[in-house]
Write a structure and sequence with these properties.
heterotrimer; A mainly alpha; B alpha/beta; C mainly alpha; B: alpha/beta; six-stranded mixed β-sheet; four-stranded antiparallel β-sheet; 10 helices; about 35% helix; about 25% strand; C: mainly alpha; binds adenosine-5'-diphosphate; binds magnesium ion
Chain lengths: ~300, ~250, ~280
């Protein structure tokens, strides 16, 4: 009698026709290609950006003044500009986003939800240059009149626009998070005699905490990388935003710097390398932010898709 | 048993760490209905899915032993698995038509096998539907979506879909579990016709059904093959006390 | 205070916040539609710009954006859909698969202006495509790929596993199952995802700043190696770089861009809901 084979199964449907071999090989390659793209992007950023580190002394690079015409490449004002705009934007978007998510998930009747959800999707679809345009013509004058900022092109203006750009991400991820809170939590809250309002804030939202945190991370990733709208409405002055009134004065972000200056630099110049250097910072920064958010996704084995 | 279509030898199988089958030895005779019965979790579905290598789709499993179809090891390297599956058809517990029309469902298998000629496909269509005792009911609805049929019709459609490949063996996993008594009777009736031509293995959805349809019956309990008998003897004079407990309803 | 009064006030506050979120969206749309529609004439859509962009139409920007999207679609759809098929149908849970997923998350998060830098470095300079439609479309394509992969994978995974099992049980190979059942069933979802990806590319400015966009080029491109004007970049240019630009033209351009993007959005939504209602599982 047969001694018996041992099959340790690795899954998959066995058997293919020979015509399928090239097809499946192609699919495999396409699957791996994304890794290739990331590496390629990083490689080219390094290739064009690393030279800045031996062309310019480190002290200069982390200095407080960005005047490329005078060979001053201090990235600090740009970095702080980006951080200030982003953090302000998130501080505006977080409460709005979470409250809207709660409203949509826990309170709104179906017909209201049917209106709200597409509206928020529309917002996600508006190109950033259109929002920037709108910001220049309608938000900036408003800021000028209310806060007396000379042009109205300020950190706050940019943050406001950015907040709305981050809202769709925050709302949808926060909604998913609320969705995963078991109904029994809600029932338990109500059974203990709490009102629905108390249950929402004392039980449901805290239970969705980690998901909401992920929403914040993703929103932040989006905000820090945003370019056009920010460039159009923050006024683009590369000043160190350390004073109290910084919120209502112009600033300049890393993204805006690249976008505004790359068109005018000579390929291979120090300035050119410096702009790619900023690109490296942005790449690493968004990578870390998204990695943090993604680790939460991977842990929960969520269905595919980020947005 | 003289003419064994399938011989299972020393077959053990586990999902990850959990053993689902332990050292099964069993011959499945040709042109007869063999019933695998027993309480749920006994490994019946697993064994069926091993016979046409459908469990190749499940990751991280481990198998030991052999399954011979007409004396050939179906797990030997180089076996043409699609061809094996055409020889060993499978009907699942829930009637699950593929998206598309009645016609498309039935001729799906032959088309996958490369038959393009619609004249031939039409012949196959009529033959399979007739064998599954469905032709008269659907001959005017061949281009309706398959999901528009009733549950009982859908299950017979799934049987027809398997029969379209003219398999040598037909595996049916609780094919009537979701059906009403009348549909169940129709399916059982068609089994009597089919066994003239095919080797049939069925996991019945009750002991009663096992007793009604089985020429041979094998009792599975928690991964062990407890007992196998010809005809209805297993239901009247079981040899093993565990079988007796189950068939007399003292168990599960 | 009575806790039910608190609840009533709280709910009112939430409603108010929802309005704070939604009303500005309506306002943006309203303003741009009302102001912009005054600029829209047949000439505006079909004529070359003239008089340093202060007159004439925006025809080449529309053509440019259309060509860019065409190129983006041709490059990103095969890679995106193929990658998604790999992830949904072939990949097992190995470190390599995780690396792929990580790469996708990372690609989706890279700022658009960094894509612009990359496109400049690789396509424009290293591969010497020059500032061209080709360079821009490839840059936009890489940016679009993670979106297409995510949405397509989701659509593929939504197709019940049983269909694949049935095809296998009928002697079909894995590819036959994908080709014959999974892809057709997932198609509406895939198309929706592709539209959403392309929509994003259509509205992006930063990736094309240094790879394609021509500031002022009042003629149509002749080959993929030509630069071109494009709608989003044009809107940026006329609203920030050209002093004395008539507001009417700015609003008109914004409206055309917005209409393009939102109509794609609506199309995607309609396709999705239409097929969701019609599917048989
Ligand atoms: N895909 C699977 N993954 C892990 N365990 C499984 C899987 N399918 C079945 N099992 C386990 O194998 C055992 C036998 O299951 P099954 O073959 O379905 O029995 P039956 O059909 O007799 O009810 C059960 O303990 C079940 O939990
Ligand atoms: Mg079973």
């Amino acid at each position: 009698m047969d001694k018996g084979v041992i099959v340790t199964n690795r899954g998959g449907i066995s058997g293919r026709r020979w015509t399928e071999v090239p097809i499946e090989a192609t699919i495999r390659v396409l699957g791996f290609s994304t890794i290739g793209f990331v590496l390629l992007i990083f490689l080219f950023l390094l290739r064009e950006g690393l030279p800045i580190f031996y062309e310019v002394p480190t002290g200069n690079l982390f200095g407080t003044r960005w005047y490329p015409t005078f060979e001053l490449f201090g990235t600090l004002p740009l970095l702080l500009g980006s951080i200030l705009v982003t953090v302000t934007a998130i501080l505006i978007a977080l409460p709005l986003g979470v409250a809207t998510a709660v409203f949509v998930r826990e309170l709104a009747p179906d017909w209201v939800r049917e209106i709200l959800k597409p509206m928020i999707e529309v917002l996600a679809g508006i190109p950033s240059v259109v929002l920037g345009f709108f910001g220049m013509h309608f938000v900036a004058p408003l800021i000028r009149n209310i806060f007396g900022a000379p042009t109205g092109l300020t950190v706050f203006t940019g943050a406001l626009i950015l907040a709305y750009m981050a809202l769709p991400t925050i709302i949808s991820v926060a909604e998913d998070a609320l969705d995963t809170v078991p109904k029994s939590y809600r029932d338990a809250g109500l059974a203990m005699g709490a009102t629905q309002w108390q249950t929402i804030w004392k039980v449901v939202v805290p239970a969705a905490r980690s998901g909401i945190l992920m929403a914040v991370m993703l929103g932040m990733g989006r905000a820090i990388g945003e370019t056009m709208a920010v460039m159009m409405v923050t006024g683009n002055a590369a000043r160190l935003p350390l004073t109290f009134d910084s919120l209502f004065r112009p600033a300049r972000t890393m993204t805006a710097t690249i976008a505004a200056e790359m068109g005018e630099v000579a390929q291979g110049s120090t300035h050119y390398h410096a702009l790619f250097g900023i690109g490296i910072i942005l790449f690493v920064l968004t990578f870390l932010i998204n990695l943090t958010a993604a680790s939460a996704i991977f842990r929960k084995q969520r269905r595919g898709g980020l947005r | 048993m003289v003419d064994a279509k399938i011989r299972i030898r020393q077959l053990s199988y586990s999902y990850g760490g959990a053993e689902a089958l332990r050292e099964i030895n069993l011959d499945v005779p040709a042109n007869a209905v063999t019933a695998f019965f027993g309480p749920s979790g006994g490994g019946k579905t697993t064994l069926l899915r091993l016979i046409n290598r459908l469990n190749d789709l499940v990751e991280g499993t481990r198998m030991q032993g052999t399954i011979l179809l007409d004396g050939e090891n179906i797990y030997a390297p180089g076996v043409d698995v699609p061809r094996l599956r055409r020889r060993v058809g499978m009907v699942f517990a829930l009637p699950l038509p593929l998206p598309g029309t009645v016609r498309e469902n039935v001729v799906c298998g032959p088309r996958l096998a490369g038959i393009r000629d619609w004249g031939r496909l039409e012949e196959i269509l009529e033959r399979s539907l007739a064998q599954a005792a469905l032709w008269n009911e659907v001959k005017d609805r061949l281009d309706d979506p398959a999901v528009a049929l009733s549950g009982g019709q859908q299950q017979r459609l799934c049987i027809a879909r398997s029969l379209a490949l003219e398999p040598e063996v037909l595996l049916l996993d609780e094919p009537t579990s979701g059906l009403d008594p009348i549909s169940t009777a129709k399916v059982e009736e068609s089994l009597f016709e089919l066994k003239q031509q095919y080797t049939i293995v069925i996991v019945p959805h009750s002991v009663q059904q096992a007793a009604r349809v089985a020429d041979y019956a094998a009792f599975f309990l928690m991964g062990d093959l407890v007992e196998v008998q010809e005809g209805t003897r297993i239901f009247t004079t079981p040899q093993d006390p565990r079988t007796e407990d189950y068939v007399t309803g003292r168990f599960g | 205070m009575d806790r039910f009064l608190v609840q009533r006030l709280g709910f009112a506050l939430l409603l108010f916040v929802a309005l704070v979120v939604v009303v500005p969206i309506l306002f943006v749309l309203g303003v741009i539609v009302v102001e912009g529609s005054m600029a829209i004439t047949w000439e505006f859509l079909s004529a070359m710009p003239s008089d340093g962009m202060k007159g004439g139409g925006i025809f080449p920007t529309i053509v440019g954006t259309f060509l860019l999207m065409l190129g983006t679609a041709m490059a990103s759809i095969p890679v995106g859909v193929g990658g998604a098929i790999y992830l949904a149908e072939y990949a097992r849970d190995t470190w390599l698969t995780r690396a792929i997923r990580l790469a996708i998350v990372n690609l989706a998060g890279i700022p658009s202006v960094v894509y612009g830098l990359f496109g400049l470095g690789l396509f424009v300079l290293f591969l010497q495509f020059g500032t061209s439609i080709l360079a821009g479309a490839l840059t936009l394509a890489i940016m679009t790929i993670p979106i297409i992969i995510s949405t397509t994978e989701e659509a593929l995974r939504a197709v019940p596993t049983e269909f694949r099992t049935i095809i296998a049980s009928l002697g079909g190979t894995r590819w036959q199952g994908i080709r014959g059942v999974v892809l057709p069933q997932a198609l509406p979802g895939i198309i929706t995802g592709i539209i959403l990806g392309l929509l994003r590319a259509a509205g992006e400015t930063a990736p094309i700043l240094f790879t394609v966009a021509a500031f002022y080029l009042p003629r149509l491109p002749h080959s993929p190696f030509d630069p071109t004007m494009a709608l989003p970049y044009h809107l940026y240019v006329i609203s920030t770089q050209v002093p004395g630009m008539p507001l009417r033209i700015q609003h008109g351009t914004a409206l055309v861009l917005l209409t393009l993007v939102l109509s794609m959005n609506v199309t995607a939504t309609v396709i999705r809901s239409y097929f969701r209602r019609r599917r048989q599982w």
